[in-house]
């Protein structure tokens, strides 16, 4: 499974952190800030050296590592779904259909474990239910993100 720290999610968040840092410097009237090696840091994230980017990545990875594990898994699944299916601008009923399909998979996992096992789900079956819940939550987040991108 692709982990969040291996995906473009870290890059996206690192770029946002860097842009916010630059904005705050600009607000203070600062227009130039050099690293210890003399590199100009007040440039867009994609123009930074790998060494400079790695400082931002380290911060982001530390924050992500501190997130509750369920949230972290939903974000990992979000990134995985984008890599698998691409980013789409679906019509609301299509999002609802996708969500319904994922909900159905949760229901199927519950039905095939809980009832088959006599109301006491085994841990390995619980993990299947949890996996489906993470996928369902990730679709909710994706839909919310698309809505927010149009706001
Ligand atoms: Mg599913």
Describe the structure.
The chain is mainly α and 151 residues long. It has two domains: 7-66, no CATH class; 69-150, no CATH class. 70% of the residues lie in helices and 0% in strands. The chain has helices at 8-27, 50-66, 69-85, 92-115, 123-149. Helix 3 (69-85) packs across helix 5. Bound molecules: magnesium ion. Magnesium ion binds at residues 102, 105, 132, 135.
The topology string of helices and strands comes to HHHHH
Taking all Cα atoms into account, the compactness measure Rg is 20 Å
Low-confidence stretches: none
Largest beta-sheet details: none
Number of structural units classed as domains: 2
Structural class: mainly alpha
By DSSP, the count of extended strands is 0
List the total number of helices: 5
Percent of residues in helices comes to 55-70%
Q: How big a fraction of the residues is strand?
A: under 5%
Question: What small molecules accompany the polymer chains?
Answer: magnesium ion
